[in-house]
Amino acid sequence: MAQPTTPPDTPSAKPLMVRCPSCGLMHAYRTDNPYRPFCGKGCKAIDLGAWASEAYRVEAKPSSEDLPDDL
Length: 71
Ligand SMILES: [Zn+2]
Fold this sequence. Notes:
The chain is an alpha+beta fold.
């Protein structure tokens, strides 16, 4: 469900802007950002927390092996 938004008229000189899935903030997509597509560490933690507690109601401890790849 996470489709990157592509502005219709973005000059190639500017960095690719993406919307943070967590807070909705537009930020530059950087390959050196370890938290992409999130804007930062906090948003990534928030999103993962919401996914674990609300979306799937995980009772046991979170396991990276159970994370789906089709996000
Ligand atoms: Zn964010």
